[in-house]
């Protein structure tokens, strides 16, 4: 997904406030006309000059009104347009009723049943917008299924119908659009959970309200710009100590590969020295694939006094020794990344939770949804139902920076700021990817990058490295975590 860096993302409630303020002004902004025109111009580009007709689906509310404005403009531009209303065409109110009247005055007609949908240049989905609060069923669900089965390019207005704007949850069924033009600002549901599988390419039409968006509470996207000025140019007069020392603690018996993945990645992302502290009884003398990673028993790494960043969790296990090392790590005065079993141990132990919250040095947690649920004391599907809210709650309760991993990873901080990552692909759904992310973030912290920048840049770089692999013909099927380190290194050196 090619999204700009730090583009604003608004929740539905904040969008409603902006709309109400604009419509309540002495000379109210014609938002529906602006939205319809912007969408019509985009639809014209998508439909091209094939001569095929355009099908516009108008729902019962304001999203349907937007669709009617789109239809009117396309008709005026000599497109053949069929409008289907999902409800009573005479039941519209307010601006939507005005849009219906204008459509009819332009010579447009309205159908209440779906015509054959094949051989259309485009379907415009104006069925439901951000106000949808219940699952689609019955005739609405059948209509969505027909759109999805048409085999025709689909343009969704504001958000694909059936998708929750705040959470990205598909509500029963949802339109799978090829393109979405969203109004005023991005919504979280476009970018996380089911959203990326339903939205296609996303365009934003701010409708002249950019200033109001900036003033409203909002999250932001994490895009390629987060890598700019991430690390300074390296002076010739430098040495390995200049670039920090990273410690990775984990690698219990049968899970040493997790610690190796994190350590190798930290080295390739620029840390001057990397130590892997392993819990396994039979600690190997060297990492056979990356002998530059220095191997130690876990307590040996925790005793080092020159570390500039520490991570604990990859392959750690949940043994009493693991809990003891985590307790020790929480007392460290260097930036700390907590991952995997270190998160699970924290969830199980009140004293560890207390120590975590009392830390005054930078702390970053990297849970997947199940680990986040354990920390929050809830079910995994509750976390997934509202990923932004869950990430923010976890950040507040732990006093740490958090990345809630998954499609559209959410970064959140205790002060209420949040961001959604836009890099990555389905090839990352394989073992060891989280260990690589831990290695990236730890390397950035070790080199002196501040906590927030290390978190957002690390998350973006992780996904971008996977995208780089796929663009080079590696994956997405069969993409392995060990292949990301070289790509991450290449991207860091490119900027």
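-> sequence recovered:
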């Amino acid at each position: 997904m090619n999204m700009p860096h730090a583009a604003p993302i608004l929740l539905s409630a904040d969008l409603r406030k902006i709309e109400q303020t604009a419509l309540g002004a002495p000379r109210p902004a014609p938002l529906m006309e602006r939205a319809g025109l912007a969408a019509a111009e985009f639809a014209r580009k998508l439909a091209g000059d094939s001569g095929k007709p355009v099908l516009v689906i108008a729902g019962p509310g304001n999203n349907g009104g937007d669709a009617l404005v789109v239809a009117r403009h396309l008709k005026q531009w000599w497109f053949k347009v069929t409008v289907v209303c999902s409800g009573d065409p005479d039941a519209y109110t307010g601006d939507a009723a005005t849009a219906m009247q204008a459509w009819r005055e332009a010579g447009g007609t309205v159908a209440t049943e779906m015509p054959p949908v094949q051989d259309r240049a485009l379907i415009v989905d104006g069925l439901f917008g951000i106000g949808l609060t219940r699952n689609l069923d019955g005739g609405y669900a059948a209509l969505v299924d027909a759109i999805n089965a048409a085999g025709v390019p689909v343009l969704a207005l504001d958000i694909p119908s059936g998708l929750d704007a705040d959470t990205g949850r598909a509500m029963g069924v949802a339109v799978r659009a090829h393109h979405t033009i969203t109004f005023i600002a991005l919504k979280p549901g476009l970018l996380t959970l089911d959203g990326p599988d339903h939205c296609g390419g996303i365009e934003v039409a701010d409708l002249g309200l950019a200033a109001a968006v900036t003033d409203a509470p909002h999250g932001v996207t994490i895009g390629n710009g987060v890598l700019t000025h991430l690390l300074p140019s390296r002076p010739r007069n430098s040495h390995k100590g200049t670039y920090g020392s990273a410690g990775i603690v984990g690698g219990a018996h049968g899970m040493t590969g997790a610690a190796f993945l994190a350590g190798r990645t930290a080295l390739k992302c620029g840390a001057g020295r990397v130590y892997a502290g392993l819990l396994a009884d039979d600690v190997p003398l060297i990492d056979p694939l990356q002998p530059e990673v220095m191997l130690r028993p876990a307590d040996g790494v925790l005793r080092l006094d020159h570390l500039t960043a520490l991570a604990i969790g990859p392959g750690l296990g949940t043994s009493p020794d693991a809990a003891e090392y985590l307790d020790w790590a929480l007392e460290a005065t260097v930036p700390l990344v907590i991952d995997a079993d270190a998160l699970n141990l924290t969830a199980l132990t009140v004293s560890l939770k207390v120590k975590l919250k009392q830390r005054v040095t930078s702390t970053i947690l990297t849970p997947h949804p199940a680990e986040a649920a354990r920390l929050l004391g809830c079910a995994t599907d509750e976390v997934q139902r509202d990923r932004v809210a869950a990430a923010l709650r976890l950040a507040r309760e732990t006093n740490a920076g958090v990345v809630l991993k998954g499609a559209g990873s959410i970064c959140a901080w205790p002060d209420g700021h949040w961001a959604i990552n836009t890099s990555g692909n389905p090839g990352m759904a394989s073992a060891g990817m989280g260990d690589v992310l831990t290695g990236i973030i730890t390397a950035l912290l070790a080199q002196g990058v501040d906590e927030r920048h290390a978190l957002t840049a690390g998350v973006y770089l992780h996904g971008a490295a996977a995208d780089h692999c796929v663009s080079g013909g590696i994956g997405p099927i069969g993409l392995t975590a060990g292949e990301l380190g070289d790509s991450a290194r290449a991207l860091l050196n490119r900027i």
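The domain at 8-217 is CATH 3.40.50.10260 (Rossmann fold).
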